[in-house]
Design brief:
alpha+beta, four-stranded antiparallel beta sheet, seven-stranded mixed beta sheet, 434 residues
Length: 434
């Protein structure tokens, strides 16, 4: 059993002793109280009751409850109780995380998990202590926390499994089958007008190809790539350690630092640096980027890694507790959540601020929260998705790599080896204790 499991389990046993000696347990904290309307149903009906733990920092409890109310069978065949975790900046968050993890270790806990995979930018907004319920989803899979879903997926009523992006969904699969369902993923996208530019490189380049190019636009792409996307997935989850040596990591940071800035004579063609806001592909100022029939035709290019192709990060996930007594009912939540209409229209999905996993969304026949692309731009979007060669869950390891970049000030490059060493050791410790 991993170290943090052992610590939490020991704490649970101590608490159990004191609880048995001191009378009834205290009331549950206000931060995680169940929905009042649903609580009444629990007391007055004999329907199966399922707890749904939601940890989406940008989704409010009203949106979560509205989604649960739309799940077929809720209220008639079973009752879904919402447990929204406090945001990362809440003083109660650590307590609530410990409580739920302790329940899981005791073979209990919520029946369904809908969780964000916290990125470094979430950490920046909510403080360095912000972390997800499952900081390392792949480790949780290996620790047999989640229910294998293959037999339920075969009988799904709403999700169209064959239309969910296979390279993204594969991130939630291990030797036991599909255990985690990625809900959305993030990847920086650069838009270049086709009338103004034709790439001088193959459309699945390595990051080093771009960095060494004589084409200033190619080098601009290299500069606009996050360092952890360049390295891809650096974790060896089977052996609880990093899969990259410290020397290779230091070398990558040096190449990233030495990429530097373009000179004044090297001006790349005009481009749009895109992000996802409320389900829409937008510019950095959150202004909508026209991609429909009246828009220019674009090349869409992503974050390229050292092995060739793009890196994508799973930013939110859904899973079922392996110990739930109601697996069929629990799967109804996931089935409805991955339905094309939910991904394309529900406010909960819009506020995940990431790309959907249904392959048809953003097409003219399947707008994403009202935004659709012309046939040509949707084809470019599909081609970009086909370039994805590395899919990983966002984890605290990404934050460690960003810390190296933040702390290596210009003119202090001699500090880079010690900065890399510090974070490298920290990352290995995180994996060993996860």
């Amino acid at each position: 059993m991993k170290k943090w499991f052992s610590i939490v389990l020991s704490l649970a046993l101590v608490l159990a002793v004191f609880t048995s000696c001191s009378g009834p347990a205290p009331a549950q904290s206000e931060a995680s109280q169940k929905d009042p309307a649903s609580t009444g149903a629990e007391e007055s009906a004999e329907l199966p009751v399922l707890r749904v733990c939601v940890d989406f920092p940008s989704v409010n409890s009203q949106e979560s409850q509205a989604f649960l109310s739309s799940v077929p069978g809720n209220g008639s065949e079973f009752t879904l109780l919402l447990e929204s975790l406090p945001r990362g900046d809440s003083p109660n968050r650590k307590t609530e995380l410990t409580r739920i993890r302790t329940e899981i270790l005791a073979g209990k806990g919520p029946d369904v998990f809908l969780c964000a995979c916290y990125s470094p930018f979430t950490y920046t907004a909510m403080g360095d202590e912000a972390t997800g319920l499952f900081p390392f989803p792949r480790q949780a899979m290996e620790n047999r926390i989640f229910l294998p879903l293959d037999e339920y997926i075969e009988n799904a009523e709403y999700m169209e499994w064959d239309k969910l992006l296979p390279n993204i969904m594969e991130a939630g699969r291990n030797d036991e089958g599909q255990q985690v369902l990625p809900l959305a993923y993030d990847m920086w996208i650069i838009l270049l007008e086709k009338d103004a530019y034709t790439p001088s490189f193959d459309l699945s380049p390595t990051w080093d190809d771009l960095a060494a190019s004589s084409d200033p636009t190619a080098r601009m792409l290299a500069q606009n790539t996050r360092v952890y996307s360049i390295m891809g997935d650096v974790a060896d989850y089977e052996n609880d350690k990093l899969s990259i040596s410290e020397e290779d990591m230091l070398d990558c940071f040096r190449r990233y630092r030495d990429q530097g800035s373009l000179s004044q004579e090297e001006t790349p063609v005009p481009y749009v640096f895109a992000q996802i806001t409320d389900g829409h592909i937008t510019a950095l100022d959150s202004c909508s980027v026209p991609l429909d029939d009246d828009a220019p035709e674009y090349w869409m290019l992503g974050e390229y890694n050292t092995t060739g192709g793009c890196t994508a990060g799973v930013s939110s996930m859904a899973a079922i507790n392996r110990n739930t007594p109601y697996p069929q009912q629990a799967f109804r939540v996931l089935d409805r959540l991955l339905d094309k209409s939910t991904q394309g229209n529900h406010p909960l999905y819009a506020h995940l601020h990431a790309l959907p996993v249904h392959s048809e969304l953003y097409s003219q026949d399947a707008p994403q929260h009202g935004q659709s692309m012309s046939a040509a731009n949707f084809q470019a979007y599909c081609e970009l998705r086909e370039q994805i060669s590395v899919v990983k869950f966002n984890t605290p390891l990404d934050h460690c790599m960003i810390e190296v970049v933040r702390n290596c000030a210009p003119g202090q490059e001699d500090q880079l080896p010690s900065l890399v060493h510090e974070q490298y050791m920290k990352m290995n410790m995180m994996l060993a204790e996860s």
